[in-house]
Each structure stands twice: as C-alpha cells, then as structure tokens.
Amino acid sequence: MREVYVAGIGITSFSRLEYPLAEIAAYPAMLALRDAGLHAVDQVYVANMGSARINSQSALGSAVVDTLGLTPAGAERIENGPASGASAVKQGFLGVAAGMYEVVLVTGCERMREVNNLEATDFVATMTHPLAEYVYGVTLPAHAAMFTRLYMERYGVTARHLAMVAVKNHANAMLNPFAHLHQPITVEGILDSPEAFTNNPYVAEPLRFFDCCPVSDGGAAVILASREKMAELGKPPVRLAGIGQATDTLAVFERPDPTDLLAVRRSAASAFAMAGLTPGDVHVAELHDAFTILEIAESEEAGFFPKGEGHLALEKGATALGGPLPINPSGGLKGKGHPVGATGVGQVHEIVTQLRGDAGERQVAGARVGFTCNFGGFGNNVISMVFVREE
Amino acid sequence: MERQIHAYACRRCGALHYPFRMVCRECGENGPHEFDPVPLPKEGTLLTFTFVHNLPAEYEVARLGLGVVELSNGLRMLGQLDIADPKLGMKVVGEVEVVRREAYARRYGMVFRAA
Amino acid sequence: MGVDLEQILRPIDSPLAPYPPKFMTVASGETLVIRQVDRDEIPTLLLHVEPLLHVERDFYDVVAARVYAELLAYYRYRMQDEYVLVGQIGGHLAAIVNGRTVNPRQGMSLHTLALRRGLRIGAHCFAAKMEYHIDILGQDEVFIVAESPIGFRRWMIEYQLEKRFEISHELGGVPSYALTRGLFDRARSSLVVGRRPVPPELLAEAQAGILPPTDPPRPPADLLAATRAMYDSTGTALLLQRGRQELEAGHA
User: Fold this and answer.
1) pLDDT of residue C4
2) CA of B53: which chain C residue's CA is closest?
C-alpha cells in the first residue's frame, strides 16, 4: 500500500448558500485544485447525504465531475450519513494507496436549507431504524438526549459541562472566517440568567438549543496524491497516515452498554494502529460534536482521556485553544456548522490547515499530528483518521 | 384486539433478536427468514428517556416522551412514553397503539405507562 | 370649510394601557431591553425595515413589506389600535413586534421581525407581545398566524395554540390560531420572562435613540438568487442579468 498525502484543500462558508448543490460541491473543489496547482485528476469522489431527497438531484457524482470540467475522470457519490465526508476521503485514499490513481479529488457538499427545518429534521431522522425507531418519531437529538441522560447519571456530566463545550466552540468559531456561527455566547446567557430557559430552550430533554449544532449548507474539498505526485507539486507534506472504520447496531438500544460508543473506540484504535501512533501523540483534534455531549464522549472513546473523565479535562481547560490538546479549533460542528456531506471533509480541511501552520489566530503551535472523528448515524458508523506532518 | 410486537428466534440456535435482522448474530447459520416470531413481553424497566420538543411536522404535540425499556426477557426496545414524570429504573408496562401517522398510514408501536 | 376630512379618515383609537419596559440577559451575555415606541420613533424604524424588503430567505421580504405597511399606517393614523414594541441591545435595534386590539376582549398579533438572529430575540419579543395582550391589556385571547415555517413550529406547535380556522386573520386572510388566557397561563413560566423595572441607565440608553441593527439579515449578492437557484441551476439567468447590468453600466 502506497503512502497518500493531502495536496490541496478548499472550503466554502458553512452557512446558508443559495446556490445549486453541484456548485456547492464544485466551488471548494476549484479552490482545492488551484491550491494544489492542478487542472485534472484521475478520479472524483463526491460526499453527500441528501441530494436525491432534499435537492432533487440524483447521480450527484456525475453532475459534479461535469460542472468542474473534469470529464472523462470517473466519479461517484458516496453516502454514509453524517460520515459521508470521511467515507469519501477513505475511498479516495484507497484509490491512491492501491496504485490505481496518482491524484484524486474528494469533495463533500450539502444543501440542507433548501427545505424548511421540520423537513430537515425528518430527513435526518430517516437514519434511524425504520421499524424500531423511526416509527416512534425519534430524532437524532432524541437519541443524543437519551445518551446524555445516562452519561449524566453514570459519570456526573452536568448541563454546565455541556454549556462549556458550546461556549468554547463558539469562541473558536469567532476565529474561523468560514464558520456558520460568529456569535459569542456565555454560560451566564445560556444557563445561569433568569431568562436562560428562553435563550436556551429544550430540544430533547436534557439537551437544549445551544447543545445542538446548526443546520448548515456548505462544501469542502481535498486533493489526495501519491508521494511522487506530491514531490512534483511541492506542497507541504501532510500525510493521511491512518484510517479506521467501525460499525455498530443500527438500533441504538441494542448496544450492550448504552453509554459506550464502541464504533468510535474501535475506529480510533485502528487508525492509530495503522499510523503507528497513540492518542498521546496527537496535538490537535477535530471531533464530531453534532451535540455537545458527543465531544466529551468521543474525546474519551478516542483514547485522549479515561472513560467518564472527558468532562473533567474540559473543566480544566485541557481542550481549549490554548490547552494541551485543543479540540475543535475550527469551532467544531457546533460553531462552524454541519453541512452533513461536507463535515468529514471539512474536518480534514481544518487539520491540514493546522498541520501546514496556516490557521492564523486559531493555530495550534507546533501541531504535527492531527486526528479527526466523523460520526455517522448515532454512532452506527464511525471513521477516524490520523494525519502527520512530515519533514 | 390486543396487538403484539414480535422478536425473532433463530431456527438454528434459538437466539432472540429485536429488531429483525436477516442473519442470526449468534450463529450466522440460518437461511433468510428462518426465524420464528415471538411476541415481546410488555413489562419492563425504564433505562433512559427524553421528551422531544423539535418534532417532525406530523406530530402536532408540544413534546413527545420517548424511552428505552429493558423488557422482562432481557431484550430492549424503544417506545413512546405516556408518563408524566419518568424516573430511571421505574417499572413500566406497554401497549401497542398508533405511534405515528404518515400520509394515509397508521404506524403501530409500543406505548409505555407506569406499571 | 365644511367637514374635516382627516377626522373622518382617521380611526378612533381606544385608550390602551402602556407596556411597562423590561430587560433580560440573552445567550451572548448582553442585555436586551423591550419597550413600547410611539409614533415619533416610527420613521427610524422604517429606515431599518426597508433593506429587508430584498431578503428572500425565511420570508423576510413578505414580513418586512407588511411590517413597513403597518408601521407607516400607524404613523400616518390609518390603523386602529396598533401598538409597536422594540427590542434593543445597547441601544441597537434587535427586533420589532406589533399587533392591535380588535375589540376589548380579543387581540390580533401582527408581526415579529428579528433583526439580530441566533439569540432567540424573536422568541423573547413575541412572548412580550403575548404578555401585553393578556396580562397588561387584560384581553382573553390573541389571534396569530405564521408566514414562515420557523414561526409555525415556534408558536403553533410549541404553545399548542387553538385552531380558529373560522376566523380569517388580517394577514392574507389565512386561518387563525388563538392563544387563550388558559394557554397563556399554562405556558407562563416560559412566556413571561424578563425583569422589571429596567435600571435607569439602561432605559435611558434605550430611549435615547434607536441605533441601527448590528448584524441584520442582508440580501444575497444577486437579488432573487434563491429563486434562480431553484428554477435555473445553470445560472444562465444570473449570467444574463449580470451581462445586461454591465452593458447598461457601460452605456451610462
């Protein structure tokens, strides 16, 4: 298996984009191609979840490769719920690692806001088990809420810890020009003040408005290349050193321990094993905080903190921008937004930016090893990745 | 008419599954649909719950109670809760009722109440 | 001489108890002041509503057009028993809500226009309106409709408003929902928030003048971009429009 590097990156604002979906995929792809100094690639991978239902566009891969003028390169749309982005990166990696392609384009996109939020909520809920979950009206926030209740009961996580994650990620997003939300919030405003209940109402108890990521449109793209191609292009060598993926039962209630996220644990372990590294080697991480509780739980399952102690590390500021292990310097899904198909690729964009030293005010000093976790469904399908800056 | 929700017993090894899957998780030896439907017990213990406020459009209620219940035979399931003040670990009993209306269809599922 | 026409054309307003201002902390830690405004402050409000006429998303354009009409009608004495409340943060305009009384018992909620988003300011000001009708004016019920799905979820579903479909709401004649005193009392803990009295410096700052909104919704670079994106994915209409504008600019 050959080594695979990231040769170019591009991203749109994650917000509300009133452009056709194929453009939302194509624009960051153009930026990534320009970053790498390329006019052609061998294969195109398009990550997206909702194109057929929300945007009435099927065969999105074909639409994107054409609008980019990259035909006759092969193209596919890759769907894995919210982990579509990482799945597409994984497919791109495999193409180059196997020696079949020299350089590929991976672009993730989503245009959630083409429909109203009731429709968007229902669409996301279709990820749940159709007979045992969806039929009851369960939504992803409902799953996260039931998980949170148990985490609070067993490990002592409180609403204050959840609020701290939101405040931290909003603050980080202020430094990210592409983030969806540029709105600082305070624990007083969302938890302590007499009006906090209206500022921060329940979405699914005990999760509240500021515990849930926004609904966003957006696109992000990366170019993956072989070592030989990288030498030609002369870009800073950031290598995709490890990928791990694991699945879990579709019905959340069928998992033996309802506070475990086994797919995160297993995928992270595989990714580190492949990279020949450990969680202790990581300088910066982008985790999938679709709900604030998930940043805490994933930081434990990935191996950064012991199980049940993620919130203690958060309290100590260990995961803040200036701390020993900054988590979600981009603002995470909570602050920078969650265009479902783009998120996994957006996480790679941030880590590569950090490892190249281009993150400006949110730069983690001396970052050489980065980690991403892209969480599909409610932990049914998770992909973790490890990136290393060489030389 | 009392409605049931069924678990599925593998015809080769007897392992119970809920929800349905095509291949037995324990032995993997069964042919497709080689399961016997077994009605789920209706008594159980509440493991976790939530009240969902942001619901899809067809639910015209302000909030919906949902919970995971561990049934008396060890299997777990998700159900709606008709319980004003749920507590973790409380005993509940279920009944199969309409839990969702989609276009012209009525979908049935378990609704749990305090035992 | 003869008849004073203006006297005939003006509606006769009933005396309405004034809305006592209140303040609250929003999610950002800043302080929101909600107070009633009189006709003399309407011209300033019109200035800040006008740009929203061109923001298509979330029905801002329809709401802004109607709010503009209602504020202007209030200013020029062509709307009966209308009231206008504003929300301000640091003196900057954050929201405008308005409504009117149909008769002593029943109120008609008109609009809720949030000019600063992401902090649930619209929700706070909508609740203040309901407090005004039920608690301050002592009415029995308020009729409500929603132009946008966001409004529908927040009000109709969250407060479980009663359907009053036999009553056509003034806004476009669509079927009304009603917030009754009973529903209001049940939701009181989440509806009646905020603190009184407003500290004197805070109130003085708000009353000193309505400053422009800090981060209002802005129209996209191309007007009707959303519509074009929906019906014309090639963007040809956009390109043609741009081409035409460049031509015209060239001629000018």
Assistant:
1) 85
2) C158
Closest residue of C to A166, CA-based? C27
C37: CATH: 3.40.630.30
Residue of C29, C149, C229 lying closest to A189 (CB–CB): C29
- Residue-wise pLDDT tens digits, A325-351: 999 999 999 999 999 999 999 999 999
Q: Are residues C163 and C46 in the same domain?
A: yes
pLDDT score, position C252: 46
For chain A, give every domain's residue range.
Answer: 4-116+215-233
Point out which residues pair with C201 in neighbouring strands: none
Q: How many CB pairs under 8 A join A and C?
A: 78
Average confidence (pLDDT) over C83-87: 98
Out of A235-239, A280-284, B32-36, least confident range: B32-36
In which residue are the tokens 């209630």 written?
Answer: A253
Chain B CB within 8 Å of residue C189 CB: no
3-class SS of residue C97: strand
Could you please state the CATH topology (level 3) that the domain comprising A4-116+215-233 is classified under. Answer: Peroxisomal Thiolase; Chain A, domain 1 (3.40.47)
Assess whether pLDDT exceeds 60 at residue C234.
no
pLDDT tens-place string over residues A114-170: 888 888 888 999 999 999 999 999 999 999 999 999 999 999 999 999 999 999 999
Q: For chain C, what is the domain count?
A: 2
Same domain, C154 and C243: no
- Residue C178: strand, helix, or coil: strand
Strand-pair category, A43-47 with A103-111: parallel
From chain C, pick out residues whose CB is under 8 angstroms from the CB of B55: 157
Kind of pairing, strands C106-114 and C92-101?
Answer: antiparallel
Of residues C124 and B103, the one with the higher pLDDT is C124
Helix (H) or strand (E) holding A300: helix A292-301
A150–B48 CB contact, under 8 Å: yes
Q: Which domain holds residue C241?
A: 222-252
The DSSP secondary-structure symbol of A254 reads: G
- Judge whether A201 is closer than 8 Å to chain B, CB to CB: yes
CB contact under 8 A, C27 and A185: yes
For residue A81 the two structure tokens come to: 């719920």
Looking at the complex, report in whole angstroms how far the Cα of residue A122 sits from the nearest Cα belonging to chain B.
Answer: 5
CA atoms within 13 A on the CB side of C135: 16
Mean pLDDT value across residues C231-252: 58
